[in-house]
Write a structure and sequence with these properties.
Elements: H1 14-21, E1 29-33, H2 39-48, E2 55-59, E3 65-66, E4 72-73, E5 88-97, H3 105-117, E6 122-124, E7 128-131, E8 134-146, E9 149-159, H4 184-205, H5 211-217, E10 224-227, E11 232-238, E12 244-248, E13 251-255, E14 262-264
């Protein structure tokens, strides 16, 4: 498959990405779509239609992008409402994993992307990339059972330009603040191989080997936090499975990503 160019969009490095990732993911297909409702939703539909080979799908625009807990991830448009493929990168990767426990996968993915981009990028548990208190991007992990196999869909959205204030619930910024000359196609080329390597490593060894590296980028560690279930405390890193450790008035508690959402809180840290 050759690189795709259309309508002034970037020339996507499809052939180069296939060449790099195929040894790790035999049979990989890389595809670019000008527009789709959601790359994760599209890959889930294709799995229901019998897709089995690994597939990396890039969308130049998402009309109904999804984030964690049903939140929206909106793609950028220009002032005329046309897709602006230079302002963000949105893609999803689907593949079969053998590991039954996927705890910490979003953390391992976020770490791989951050390591590939810039040392100043932090990670906000469980699935966001941050810089100076603002969101740069997010990760959405979904799974589907196909017979005896579990297929995982890993969705990644990264801001290049500063998004409109209405796009995201959290304060947001763009990678152009850190990497002013990087484009969406170059960004894909930069993160694709580290992402694949991280996913393959996770499948074999889980999150544990990545724990220390994650802690070095953990933006919640030592910060006062409030959980959507009412718990408050101080971030105390993550455990070997990727669960958030919360130091509360009653002791150290674990918080699982499917239980609650977490945000910094204007309270004094516990001693």
């Amino acid at each position: 498959m050759s690189p795709l160019t259309n309508g002034g969009s970037p020339s996507w490095p499809v052939a180069a990405v296939v060449a790099e990732l195929e040894p790790l993911m035999p049979g990989l297909v890389v595809e670019v779509m000008p527009e789709v409702d959601s790359t994760n939703s599209e890959l889930m539909r294709r799995m229901r239609q019998g897709q089995r080979a690994p597939l990396l799908l890039v969308a130049e625009r998402q009309s109904a992008g999804r984030g964690r807990q049903g939140r929206f991830w909106l793609s950028h448009t220009d002032p005329q409402g046309k897709p602006n493929a230079h302002a963000s990168l949105t893609f999803s990767l689907s593949l079969v994993l053998q590991r039954s426990d996927l705890s910490g996968l979003s953390l391992a993915v976020g770490l791989a992307v951050a390591d590939a981009l810039h040392p100043a990028i932090g990670l906000k548990w469980p699935n966001d990339l941050w810089w100076e208190g603002q969101k740069l991007g997010g990760i959405l992990i979904e799974t589907a059972i196909q017979g005896a196999q579990r297929t995982v869909v890993i969705g990644i959205g990264l801001n290049l330009a500063h998004p409109p204030a209405s796009d995201l619930r959290n304060p947001a910024t763009g990678l152009h603040q850190l990497l002013p000359d990087v484009g969406a196609a170059e960004l894909l080329a930069r993160v694709a191989l580290p992402l694949a390597q991280a996913v393959v490593s996770f499948d074999g060894r889980g999150f544990g080997p990545s724990q220390a590296a994650f802690l070095a980028r953990d933006v919640l560690r030592g910060k006062p936090l409030i959980c959507s279930d009412g718990r408050i405390g101080t971030g105390h890193g993550v455990d070997a499975r990727g669960a958030l450790l919360l130091h509360t008035a009653t002791g150290l508690e674990t918080v699982l990503s499917d239980e609650v959402s977490v945000r910094p809180a204007p309270i004094a840290p516990l001693p």
